Amino acid sequence: MIKRRKSRQIAVGHVLIGGDAPISIQSMTTAFTHDVDATLTQIQALAQTGCDLVRVAVPEKEDAEALPEIAQRAPIPVIADVHFDYRFALLALDSGAACVRINPGNIGSSEKIAEIVRYAKIKKIPLRIGVNAGSLEKKFIKRDGRPTATGLVESAVAHVEFLESLGFFDFKISVKSSDVLMAVEAYRELSQRVDYPLHLGITEAGTISQGTVKSAVGIGILLFEGIGDTIRVSLTADPVKEVGVGWDILKTLGLRERGVVLVSCPSCGRCAHDFIDIVNEIEQDLQKFTDPLKVAVMGCEVNGPGEARDADIGIAFGDREGLLFRKGEKIKKVSRQEAKSALLAEIKRIQQANQGD
Ligand code: SF4
């Protein structure tokens, strides 16, 4: 059981972050924000996959002007992501967005940051202070020769102290780097220095395969140590994939439950050659189930049921047939063609029975 660090709690719309709130999952749209329909279509898809919060980029005035409609129609709280122009942050605070993310380092003067904070206080909207290795203030780069974990933390703490000096405490913080070990070190150090909720992420993590590994390692280490209150997996891919990976990280660590956990064997010389395709198809089909359930798909009848004994339901493939089993016990045999539909029907039956409990 992971013991979580004690943090303050903030509310981003109806989603609580920090304290004993569940670790929330965020993603970010990739459509132009001023294309309201495209952005809302992405947000709908993200929400259906289990995304708790969504961030949208606000690089131009027309994007800021699109925020009210997006925030009003989105099924989950919207976070406006503002760089450079503090006036867009002010517009965002007036738009119905549930949070505004700024990187104080690139907003500019302390007067501009103070103006954002003053208005956030009036509107009772939280901020995210997002410090990134890629945009760390020059004084830290000059001092250390490159971005470092210490530089990230000192930058974040200086911003925190400035916000506190303005009587503002309603914020969360991130200290991201694409260097996994630097990010881990920075979050560890920051978690010792402040009690604000922490938004975890490995920035510019890469494509689905590399980005998944980097995020799982970096975010996973921190969550395992009890650090982190909300997560965003960054992938060069459809953002829906980010949410799936985020859920898999939380489920693997036993921090949240949602939908099916798939157990499948790597296959070996005992199973038919189309097994990998079958498992991938079944994985797709399982996306629609949202209740927690452990499902096994195994490559042979000889070892499959025993190797996946703790699965709630499973199927093991033979040459011509599939063997359905529950908790390692055989239920029935079905033809290979019927195997997938028989498994899905059984899962549906279990979930309906559980809902009736
Ligand atoms: S379950 Fe069967 S097919 Fe799969 S790895 Fe084990 S022995 Fe091989």
Structure overview:
Helices cover 43% and strands 20% of the residues. With 357 residues, the protein is α/β, with parallel strands linked by helices. The strands form three sheets. The chain has an eight-stranded parallel sheet with strand order 8-7-6-5-4-3-10-9. The protein has a five-stranded mixed sheet with strand order 11-12-13-14-15. The radius of gyration is 23 Å and the shape is elongated. The model has no long low-confidence stretch (mean pLDDT 94). Iron/sulfur cluster is lined by residues 265-268, 270-271, 298-300, 303-304, 307.
Main traits of this protein?
single chain, Sulfite Reductase Hemoprotein, domain 1, 2 domains, binds iron/sulfur cluster, alpha/beta, 13 helices, 43% helix, 357 residues, TIM Barrel
Structure summary:
The chain contains 13 helices and 15 strands.
- How many β strands by DSSP? 15
Gyration radius from CA atoms, angstroms: 23 Å
Mean pLDDT: 94
Secondary structural class: alpha/beta
Instruction: Provide the domain count.
Output: 2
Number of helices: 13
Order of helices and strands: EEEHEHEHEHHEHHEHEHEHEHEHEEEH
pLDDT < 50 runs, ≥5 residues: none
Q: Might you state the CATH topology name of the largest domain?
A: TIM Barrel
CATH class of the largest domain: Alpha Beta
Q: Percent of residues in helical segments?
A: 40-55%
Strand order of the largest sheet: 8-7-6-5-4-3-10-9
- Give the CATH architecture of the largest domain: Alpha-Beta Barrel
How much beta, percentage-wise? Answer: 15-25%
Distance between the termini: 27 Å
Bound molecules: iron/sulfur cluster
